[in-house]
Design a protein that fits this description.
Blueprint: E1 5-9, E2 28-32, E3 44-51, H1 58-62, H2 75-86, E4 91-101, E5 104-113, E6 117-125, E7 133-144, E8 149-158, E9 161-169, E10 178-190, E11 200-214, E12 218-231, E13 245-258, E14 269-279, E15 288-302, E16 305-318, E17 327-329, E18 343-345, E19 347-366, E20 377-394, E21 406-417, E22 421-429, E23 435-441
Parallel strand pairs: 3-5
Antiparallel strand pairs: 1-2, 4-5, 6-7, 7-8, 8-9, 9-10, 10-11, 11-12, 12-13, 13-14, 14-15, 15-16, 16-19, 17-18, 19-20, 20-21, 21-22, 22-23
Length: 445
């Protein structure tokens, strides 16, 4: 006996911050209704079987499931588990079905694996000037050894130049929840704020981190690093050490709680994090603290409409802060309405409110002519959104009220594309009535 199903077509899009792959697919989707039988039946999960994971180890999938053998079957938890497995970013599609034998239920988890090893291009323009182009290439393995480990190598040339190698392992062995991350980079880049004039910075850095996951939502992490910064010219604040070369160690600790359903484009749940970092030890000229927080909330308000909000901040204390450790709007964080405006400071706060309305809820398309099975299932969707952003930066000597807030508002379309790519086409206004087109990848936060 099988449970009743909802059937329909599904469409979706998936995007990454630095690189993306696009794919699309349509197919039949089945979902579990609340409970089988007369609504009073209690079913016990007798077994859980996984199919389709030709590369991915079973423990990677089972680690994301709140439903275990011997548990009572709850339809809402099955849907939750399906979203958690999909949020690994390893599969094009995840389905969970079950069969019933008396008061026992046998679960079947079916996954459709993605292509895990691929190159990605690097192309950018510094200071909105086409004379300042940088370009390069990278290679990423999203599922090294089938254990959800990531290997990323990238190099760039031109106005900014760098080489970087990163390794991330979310679970060192099958019997623990300990993570490990290692990153090395060497770069020659221009400073981030054009208002300070242009000058070149050379830097080498090494970072190692380890973390522990508690349950399904909480992660604590400790990190340590070593950095060297050289500034080519005598720039005030470019470095803190006379002679233009800073060398220092750093340590940081952070805690994160994450209950979002689908991380590429959540419709419910929340994310909260706290971080504290110390830069410089043992008489180093660099000697300061930085603290930060972030909160994201996604509330279903009517059927599939989602109210989304974010607030974040970073604050500094202690000794002088070198220019290469300032915080910014205009790069990772932006204020739509001032999307290309670079705002520099030692401290930063910001917030965003959005309403997401589905035009095409996420669905699948099966492409029968794909030369590779990893690209034969495409997830896509389309949302309309309205938003409002606000934020400010400031230096400690100015005080919190030393600078005014920047804000903007607008609306647009958010395209959910295969391989977890999200593309946004938006129009924003600032309070002076000046408008701008925003084209970007990934969620706004």
């Amino acid at each position: 006996m099988t449970p009743p199903r909802r059937r329909g077509f599904v469409f979706g899009i998936h995007v990454k911050k630095k690189f993306f792959i696009l794919s699309v697919s349509i197919g039949l989707v089945s979902g579990l209704r609340a409970q089988p039988g007369n609504g009073n039946d209690v079913l016990t999960v007798r077994s859980i079987r996984i199919e389709g994971n030709e590369t991915t180890k079973e423990f990677v999938i089972r680690r994301e499931m709140s439903t275990k053998q011997g548990d009572t079957l709850v339809a809402e938890r099955i849907e939750y588990d399906k979203n958690r497995i999909y949020s690994l970013g390893l599969f094009n599609r995840v389905e969970i079905d079950y069969t019933i034998d008396g008061n026992a239920a046998d679960l079947l988890v079916r996954v459709h694996e993605r292509w895990y090893l691929y190159p990605f291009p690097i192309l950018g323009i510094k200071y909105r000037d086409f004379d300042n182009v940088y370009y390069g290439v990278g290679v990423i393995h999203n599922n090294f050894r089938g254990r959800n480990e990531r290997l990323i190598f990238s190099m760039a040339f031109g106005f900014d130049r760098w080489v970087q190698l990163t390794y991330r392992n979310p679970k060192l062995t099958a019997d623990d929840d300990i993570s490990l991350g290692i990153s090395f980079s060497s770069a020659t880049v221009q400073n981030l704020s054009p208002d300070r004039g242009f000058y070149q910075q050379s830097t080498q850095s090494f970072l190692i981190s380890t973390g522990k996951r508690f349950g399904f939502h909480s992660v604590a992490q400790l990190s340590g690093g070593y950095e060297v910064w050289d500034v080519s010219d005598e720039i005030a604040g470019g470095t803190l050490t006379p002679g233009g070369r800073d060398e220092f160690f750093s340590v940081s600790a952070n805690y994160a709680y994450d209950s979002r359903d689908v991380r590429e484009y959540p419709t419910e749940g929340s994310f909260h994090s706290l971080v504290a970092a110390k830069y410089g030890f043992g008489g180093s000229a660099v000697d300061f603290f930085r603290y930060g927080y972030e909160s994201q909330v996604f509330l279903p308000v009517h059927t599939e409409i989602t109210l989304a909000g974010r607030t974040f901040g970073q604050f500094s204390s202690g000794g002088a802060i070198p220019a290469y450790r300032y915080v910014y709007f205009g790069y990772r964080d932006r204020i739509r309405g001032y999307f290309r405006r670079v705002l520099e400071g030692e401290n930063i706060v910001g917030g965003t409110v959005e309403v997401h309305v589905p035009i095409l809820s996420p669905r699948y398309y099966e492409f029968p002519y794909s030369p590779l099975p990893e690209f034969s299932v495409w997830r896509y969707g389309l949302y309309a959104a309205v938003f409002a952003d606000a934020g400010k930066t400031w230096f400690r000597g100015e005080g919190y009220g030393g600078r005014h807030w920047y804000s903007g508002f607008g609306g647009g379309l958010h395209f959910l594309l295969p391989y977890s790519v999200v593309a946004r086409v938006e129009y924003a206004w600032n309070p002076h009535g000046v408008g701008e087109i925003v084209l970007d990848l990934g969620m706004s936060f």
